[in-house]
Design goal:
The structure is a single chain. This protein has 542 residues and is α+β, with helices and mostly antiparallel strands. It has three domains: 3-272, Rossmann fold (3-Layer(aba) Sandwich); 279-404, P-loop containing nucleotide triphosphate hydrolases (Rossmann fold); 407-541, 2-Layer Sandwich (Alpha-Beta Plaits), CATH 3.30.70. The protein is 26% helix and 32% strand. The longest helix is centred in the C-terminal third of the chain and has 15 residues, at 456-470. The radius of gyration is 25 Å and the shape is globular. The protein binds guanosine-5',3'-tetraphosphate (G4P).
């Protein structure tokens, strides 16, 4: 059977989240190796191998060895197709990560066993919680001395607020790491690195109480049996319903570097992770061209199995391949099937175009998408008209909810070195803002361009790209803005009064939204107190 429904049911859309250095890149590499997509470990980040990295497209990333952009990698595993969406490792690009998380159906959290739950993991987990994203957990670096596994589980439960169901249990750690015990299947997987084990391959043994297990574990045997008995008595069993609801996470121990425990994780992942999930979309009157001006009809749940195609753009990326010099809009298909050459409605603009050069992504390879179905990601060539959050469909007028824009926390004024390049600067800044690389604000009172960012590296990325792609040389000046809030109000008259009163602190962002730029939190609080009928928003949907 190869019906559309069947193909959709096989899709798994995943993002890996972790604190930097926990091992996200290493595990990505191993997953791709298992999925037979890269031959040589080290190609994902190109760290020591000096190879061109599969997911590092931009020269700035290569220089810094950080992953600025998100990439999409598709690989098959056990009759399922995994679409792995990479997320930037550096927290300065966290906004990108949040958007990627809106496009996946489940996530894998990698925790460094020696460090436990770290700061960035907490933040990412909070984003996952907004959508109750089901979560697998991998406790990494068992080949090193890690913290007490029971303590680690307690920490995940208390700090991240999610119940843990250990699926396997480590037999020792660091130099004494002997392997893993599968708590549900009652089987042992012995680590090939153990000196007393001759062959390089891991050995699987059925039953902790078998003679073979007793023999191989020797002096350790009794102690490990006791520990496992305690764990079995004290911990929750995996409950798929609780996992799908985002209430419980199955926990796997292993070492990504030695590729030990990763296959077992992937086997379970494709089995238990959800197929493409339903999404909420606003529907608009289909007879009106532009979605913004069309009357809003009731929201509806879009189910992946629907025949009609629809999806939304979660990421725009420029110049993935310097030879192509184009921009790609990454579209997550939410329902139906995409066929090359089909007509798509760009819901925000109301334009319908025939798309015959959409791309699919095979571990960073850009190839033409044949047929892609719900759960897949396709790349649309973007010549400037596509924004993050835009919906495309085979006809229906839709707008997907929940693709966030976060108020920036850092602000700088752009200083143009060559005044004759003003036009190019405006164009470049507008396009980079559309891509979501940063946010731009145009104050009402002058012609400045203010750049807003979440992390300092975003500023560097912007000047780098303006120079490389638009031939504009510019720098920054400090500006006395600390916070930004999008403002709106029910009553046009009140809003107009507010506009007059706070004229000098107001700006328009790239999407045309009125924004209050506060020199300090005190100013913001005062403005909010004095204007109770005006709403101040720290986030806005695309
Ligand atoms: P990230 O993407 O989450 O930032 O982490 P990454 O995979 O780059 O891993 C961070 C460091 O941790 C790397 O070492 C990597 O080799 C190491 N690592 C990952 N998994 C394991 C593991 O299971 N065991 C051990 N012992 N180390 C692991 P590095 O020295 O920073 O990089 P490299 O020089 O090895 O490339």
């Amino acid at each position: 059977m190869n019906s559309l429904q069947d193909r959709i049911a096989r899709r798994r859309v995943l993002a890996i989240i972790s604190h930097p250095d926990a091992g996200k890149t290493t595990i990505t590499e191993k997953l791709l190796l298992l999925g037979d997509h890269i031959q040589i470990a080290g190609t994902v980040k190109g760290r020591k191998t000096g190879r061109m990295a599969a997911s590092d497209w931009m020269s700035m990333e290569r220089q810094r060895g950080i992953s600025v952009s998100s990439s999409v990698m598709q690989f098959p595993w056990r009759e399922r197709v995994v679409n792995l969406l990479d997320t930037p490792g550096h927290e300065d690009f966290s906004e990108d990560t949040y958007r990627v998380l809106t496009a996946v159906d489940s996530a894998l959290m990698v925790v460094d066993g020696a460090k436990g739950v770290e700061e960035r993991t907490v933040k990412l987990m909070n984003v996952c919680r907004l959508r109750d994203t089901p979560l697998f957990t991998f406790v990494n670096k068992l080949d090193r001395d890690i913290r007490d596994p029971v303590e680690l589980l307690d920490e995940i439960e208390s700090v991240l607020g999610i119940a843990c169901a250990p699926v396997n249990w480590p037999l020792g750690m660091g130099r004494e790491f002997r392997g893993l015990y599968d708590l549900a299947k009652d089987s042992l997987l012995l680590f090939p690195g153990m000196q007393w084990q001759k062959a390089g391959a891991a050995e699987r043994i059925a039953g902790l109480h078998s003679d073979r297990a007793r023999d191989l574990l020797g002096n350790w045997y009794e102690q490990l049996c006791e520990e496992i008995e305690l764990v079995l008595g004290a911990s929750e069993r995996f409950d798929r319903g609780a996992y799908l609801a985002g209430k419980q996470t199955p926990v796997y121990f292993g070492t990504a570097l030695a590729n030990f425990g990763v296959r077992e994780l992937l086997d379970d992942f494709v089995e238990f992770a959800p197929p493409p999930r339903r999404r909420i979309a606003e529907t608009r009157d289909v007879s009106v061209k532009k979605a913004e001006t069309a009357a809003t009809l009731p929201s509806r749940e879009v189910s992946a199995e629907e025949e009609n195609f629809c999806g939304f753009v979660f990421k725009i990326q420029a110049n993935m391949d310097p030879k192509h010099r184009d921009r790609i809009a990454f579209l997550r298909i939410c329902a139906g099937e995409f066929r090359q050459g089909m007509k798509l409605r760009h819901c925000r603009t109301g334009k319908t175009t025939r798309v015959s050069d959409a791309l699919s992504f095979m571990a960073g390879d850009r190839s033409l998408a044949g047929n892609a179905v719900a759960g897949d990601i396709i790349g649309l060539h973007n010549h400037g008209g596509i924004h993050v959050g835009d919906a495309f469909s085979s006809g229906e007028n839709l707008k997907f909810r929940g693709i966030p824009h976060f108020a920036p926390e850092l602000f700088r004024r752009i200083r143009l070195r060559d005044p004759l390049k003003w036009k190019q600067l405006q164009k470049g800044v507008a396009q980079l803002a559309e891509e979501g690389s940063m946010q731009v604000f145009m104050p009402l009172r002058n012609n400045d361009l203010l750049i807003g960012a979440i992390g300092v590296l975003q500023f560097e990325l912007v000047t780098h790209r303006l120079r490389e792609e638009y031939g504009v040389d510019c720098g920054y000046e400090p500006v006395s803005v600390r916070l930004a809030r999008w403002v709106d109000g029910e009553d046009a008259k009140t809003l107009e009064q507010f506009r007059r009163k706070y004229h000098d602190n107001l700006a328009i962002d790239a999407g045309g939204h009125l924004t209050y730029l506060a020199p300090s939190r005190v100013n913001l609080n005062l403005a909010m107190e004095k204007s109770p009928d005006v709403a101040f928003h720290a986030t806005r949907e695309h």
